[in-house]
Design brief:
With 114 residues, the protein is mainly alpha-helical. It is 65% helix and 7% strand. A hairpin with a 2-residue loop joins strand 1 and strand 2.
Length: 114
Amino acid sequence: MDHNTGDPLRDLAQSTHDFFVRFGVTPELASCIKNFEEEVKELIESAKIGTDKTHIAEEAADVMVTAIGVCFASGVDIEKIVEQVYAVVAKNDAKTHDTHVFADGKIRRRTPKN
C-alpha cells in the first residue's frame, strides 16, 4: 500500500492503521502500551551506544509507530493525532529566549503560569 501524501506524519499514521487492519487486529491498550515501552527501551539503548545512527533512527520510528498504536487503542483517530502534532509544532515554534530558558536539561517557561 502506497502511503505518500507528502505528509509523513499522516502517512505513518495511515500505514499504522492499515497494518492493524491487514492483520485483523483491533489495537488493545495493554498490549499497545507494552509494545511502546519495549520500543522506547530499544531507542534509549541504541542512543546510549550511539554508534549506529541508522539504527537509532529506526528505533525512533518504531517508537512513533507504537505511540500511534497507543492512540488508536485509546480511540484517538488519525486526524486528531495530526492536529495535535501540528499544535505542538506551533507551540514550540512560538517559544523564544524571551519566554523560555534551558534549565535542568529541559526548556522551561521563564515565569511559571499563574
